[in-house]
Amino acid sequence: MRGDSRLSRMLHVLIHLERGGRPMTSEMIGQMLNTNPVVVRRTMAGLREQGYVQSEKGHGGGWTLARPLNEITLLDVYVALDRPEMFCLVPSSDHAECLVEIAVNSALEDARREAEALLLRRFATIRLSDVAGDFERRMSERFAAKSAPDDPA
């Protein structure tokens, strides 16, 4: 099963929208994500429906944030994307009447539900402004490291 990167990709886009200060077209976002603009529009639609982004057509149009990053959590974006699968573990169904398989599937499903609930609770505490702040910190550290004079000692 292939992983679903929509959540991380849309978080990436939202932070770029905030930092860019101007609308980004689906073509620009598609180029940034190395994907088709149609995929961008389809994926961004859920974010627009929830009021996190807006789009304008025509010259100078494109996608913009409709709310500040400090009002959007990872959980908000996850839900707007129709709750993509978090884990790719699936129960076996080769021997549906086998009591061992039933017990194994039950244990795995219980653990998956607990892990998902924990992750969703954590998502609710992380604002996109927190992620953007971490990015800014990393950029400052990288810039400081590159501009620091070499120590001849």
TrEMBL record:
Which range is the signal sequence, renumbered to this chain? none
- Give GO cellular component annotations, separated by semicolons: cytosol
Origin superkingdom: Bacteria
Entry's InterPro entries? Tscrpt_reg_Rrf2, WH-like_DNA-bd_sf, WH_DNA-bd_sf
A GO molecular function held by the record: DNA-binding transcription factor activity
Q: Which Pfam families does the record associate with it?
A: Rrf2
Q: What is this protein called?
A: Rrf2 family transcriptional regulator
Species assigned in the record: Rhizobium daejeonense
